[in-house]
Every structure is written in C-alpha cells, then in structure tokens.
Amino acid sequence: MSFDIKEYYEELGGSNQLISYQGNITSEVINTILEQVEIKLNSVTEKDAKLRKKLYNVLVEALQNLYHHVEDLPDGVYENLRNKFGSLIINRSENGFKISSGNFISSNRIKMLKDKLDKINSLTQDELKDMYKFILNHQKLTAKGGGGLGLVDIARKTGNKFDYSFHNVNNEFYFFNLNIIVS
Amino acid sequence: MESLSIEGTTKTPTVRFDGDLGVIEIKGRSIPENSIEFYKPLVDWLDKYSKVAKPLTKVNVQLEYFNTSSSKCILDVFKKLEGIHKSNNEVIINWFYEEDDEDMLEAGEDYESIIRVPFKMIEIV
Q1: What is the pTM of this model?
Q2: Which of B65, B69, B101 is facing A145, going by the closest CB pair?
C-alpha cells in the first residue's frame, strides 16, 4: 500500500491541535465535535467573535460534506478502520485555523471533485457569490439533504483557496485530503 | 387557523407561526444534516396560510447560524411568502443579524435579490 493513513495523521499532529477525530462520521459524532469545538472556542482559546463564528460556520459545512460524501471503505484494506470513515482535524495557525478533512473516494469520482475545486479556486469573491446564488435558486436538494453548496459557501466565507490532495490507496480508491484556512 | 410552534434545539431553530396575527418567526440555529425533514411542516403550513393570509404578514428571521442544506429550505419558505405577496397581500421580511456579522447580512441580501418581497435588514446591537 502506497499510502499509510496512520503515519499521515501522526505527521499532522502537534501542539497546535484544537481537535482531531478519525472514525465513523455520524450525526451524533458531528454533534459531539461541534459541542467540543464550541466549548474550546468559548473558553480562553479564541477571543475574536468574528473569527470564532466563521470557524464554526465553516466547520459545520466541512463536517456535513463528510457526512454526505463518505464512502464505505475499500474491501481488504485498512481492516482496523470502520466503514463511513472520515477524518477531521483543526489546528491553530498563525492568524487563524486550519481545518483538514479526509475521506476515501472512488477513483471515478475524483475528476468531478477536482474540477469543482479548481473551478471554485479560480473564481473571485463576486463570481463565488453569483455561483452560490445560482445553485441556491436552481438546484434541488438531494434526498440526503446535500445541496452542492457546501464548498462554494466555505470558499465564500473564508476568502481563501482550497489546498487539496488525493493519495492513492489502490486502483479503485483514493484518500482525499482537503485543507481549509479560516483566518 | 392553527398556529405552528416548534421548540429550538442545538441544531434546529425555534419556530412560531401565528396565522391569526400574521406573524411568522424563525429564530436560533439551523444546521441539521438533512433540513428537508425539518422544513416540510413549515412549507406545508404556509401553503394553508396562503389561502387565509392576513393583509399584512410580518416575518422575523433571526438566525445565529445556518448551513447550506437549510439555505435551500429557507428559500422555499420565502418562495411561499412571495406567492402570498403576489396575491396582493403585504409581506415584510425582517432579516436580523448580529453586530459585525457581515456573512449573515450578506446571506440576507442574497435572498433579497432572489425573492420579490420587501426585506428589512436589522442589526442587533
């Protein structure tokens, strides 16, 4: 296997970590993470109300993106991990926070996702606003409640570009890592 | 008509729809994973209300957070109100946002540009 998930997360760890979760992404897990982060932010960690609110907003979208898009694990690899595996880490950065989310993705879905991320990264704030309004007004919600707006919303709120990577697991699966800077 | 009243949770807003007074309120957080389930009774209620709508319907939306899944459902709610407005009833949407919350103000302005109903942006100080 070319991609060692355990090693990968060990490298991401550090003293600046606000929260780190690797496991099943369920509604209850999302509640717990949101609660934890809120408690940590309300204590000494973050005085800037505006940044705190932005982080919380973006975190909700990042978690719910995971919730709506996690795929079952590929057979025969990572036997010790659960299905619906996803990862979410928040680190403090120089002038804000970095949210790193990770999940497995089928090879055939990569192009669509990559195109979307590149497209969003290429747009100005005004163009993102137009894109958001167009999707809001013209696309139906899926049965699960996803609306195709999460990434656009994150890009609009943070004003930062996405940094992302795909790590090969086997022919059919990759591990997708997305870094979001909230500053 | 019967009013609609839902208590808020950490993920869903408090809802008070009073047909006799013509006052509609949504307050709190709206961040459920699947918002369709939550908003369906609201849209259904507005369907019924549209037939007996008051000459003036006052709408107060005061959200601390809402996710993108909710944003579409909120638009559905506003589209129902637009229908009421079109049939010659007055409707006013008061969009409340906390001081300095530019994202929430901008979200209100997004709706204002899509929905043909008068909006009033109100900063809570």
Answers
A1: 0.92
A2: B69
